[in-house]
Amino acid sequence: DVKVTQSSRYLVKRTGEKVFLECVQDMDHENMFWYRQDPGLGLRLIYFSYDVKMKEKGDIPEGYSVSREKKERFSLILESASTNQTSMYLCASSSPTTDLSGYGYTFGSGTRLTVV
Amino acid sequence: AQKITQTQPGMFVQEKEAVTLDCTYDTSDQSYGLFWYKQPSSGEMIFLIYQGSYDEQNATEGRYSLNFQKARKSANLVISASQLGDSAMYFCAMRGDTGRRALTFGSGTRLQVQP
């Protein structure tokens, strides 16, 4: 069963900590994405990557960075966590050959991050 | 750039009745795809249905159908014969054929099915 795995389901971190959210996919997908989900705002794109060592800013990149050293792994980094980064974070992957089709995108189960 | 608007923050429906969740979109792309996802309380995103902009017929998947009106830029999800297990958040999303390959999401609709 193909999947996108996010390493933590729940995380609690302190303000100012450096936080790593990990995402691994086993589908050999070129594209990977990080979204954050907040009530009333839906999912908003933070960063995405089309290839190894490649990254592009999404709609809300401030306060975040990413790393993609291997094709299967896409990490989201909060350099200095703040309380306004408390949210649900969702990782997704897709292949450019199938992403304009119904099952083109696969999502992880999400990481609920609380910054105190 | 794409934009998705879902104007119903919450909806109630009686079990076994049909319900329509609204979605309007805006894009300058000629070719694009429209998606609906279900998110139960567990948090996973479950793909429901897809409509391509050049598909002539409205998409259907079991109890789900997509009422696609291209001229009005709407892509409403219709759930027939609602079940208690349909209670969840529902997101409309789209991707155009130019620009970035990421999905753009609406704000979602929370559906509650009442017995």
- Average pLDDT level of chain A: 93
Number of distinct beta strands of chain A: 11
Biggest sheet statistics of chain A: 7 strands, mixed
Distance between the termini of chain A: 36 Å
| Biggest beta sheet attributes of chain B | 6 strands, mixed
Which structural class is indicated by helix and strand composition of chain A? mainly beta
How much helix, percentage-wise, in residues of chain B?
Answer: under 10%
What's the overall average pLDDT of chain B, rounded? Answer: 95
| Rounded radius of gyration of chain B (Å) | 14 Å
Instruction: Note the run of SSEs of chain A as H and E.
Output: EEEEEEEEEEE
Secondary-structure content class of chain B = mainly beta
From the alpha-carbon coordinates, what is the Rg of chain A to the nearest angstrom?
13 Å
Structure description:
The complex is a heterodimer of chains A (116) and B (115). Chain A has 116 residues and is mainly β. Chain A has strands at 4-6, 10-13, 19-25, 31-38, 42-49, 56-57, 64-70, 73-78, 87-94, 105-107, 111-115. In chain A, strands 2, 4, 5, 6, 9, 10 and 11 form a seven-stranded mixed β-sheet that branches. Chain A has a four-stranded antiparallel β-sheet with strand order 1-3-8-7, with no helix packed on it. Chain A starts with a strand and ends with a strand. Chain B has 115 residues and is an all-beta fold. Chain B contains no helices and twelve strands. In chain B, strands 2, 5, 6, 10, 11 and 12 form a six-stranded mixed β-sheet that branches. In chain B, strands 3-9-8-7 form a four-stranded antiparallel β-sheet, with no helix packed on it. In chain B, strand 8 (64-69) and strand 9 form a beta hairpin. Chain B is globular and about 45 Å long. Chain B starts with a strand and ends with a strand. The chains are: A mainly beta (116), B mainly beta (115). At the A-B interface, strand 4, strand 5 and strand 9 of A face strand 5, strand 6, strand 10 and strand 11 of B.
